[in-house]
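Sharing a chain and its predicted structure for anyone who wants a worked example. Both blocks are below, sequence first, tokens second.
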Amino acid sequence: MSNKVKFGLKNVHYAVATETDGVISYGTPVPIPGAVSLTLSPKGDKAEFYADDIAYFVSSTNQGYEGSLEVALLPDAFKKDVLGYVADASGALFEDANAIVKNIALLFEFSGDANATRHILYNVAVERPNIESSTRTTTKEVKTETMNITASPAIDTGYVKAKAEAADASYETWFTTVYEYVAPTAP
């Protein structure tokens, strides 16, 4: 049975991407607990050519997605693995202005009325998260961290994203390794 609706966000993971001779490989997915929201808008342009008094040819480009990921608190491991933070001998964490931010695969799951659907974005560039807090008053107001993200087509395959539902063979191992395209076998 397919989903009629989707809701919820959980099981957010990242896997550091590494390029060697134009081929991308991914590290082992690492969880980012405390997922709050993920917002992605399509990125690309529409081209229209008019002839014979009509839109004779219409095409659009797929340049991936732009948006944001909001989490309760970004783990220090992510800051070191992806954003290039460094720890000193005493364990203090330093944000390095000269660090080169690494691209990642972003894995996550949406709940649904029938199935939880798992997703991967393959070539994700992240920006540093916002820093926000406020004084405590009569209530404790939790502040979150939000990162802007851009998911572009992978340079080696052109794939932007993939998804799987519970009936798919890839579903059970979705968060243990970054799933990549496997060509169907001929009948």
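Comments welcome. The mean pLDDT is 91.
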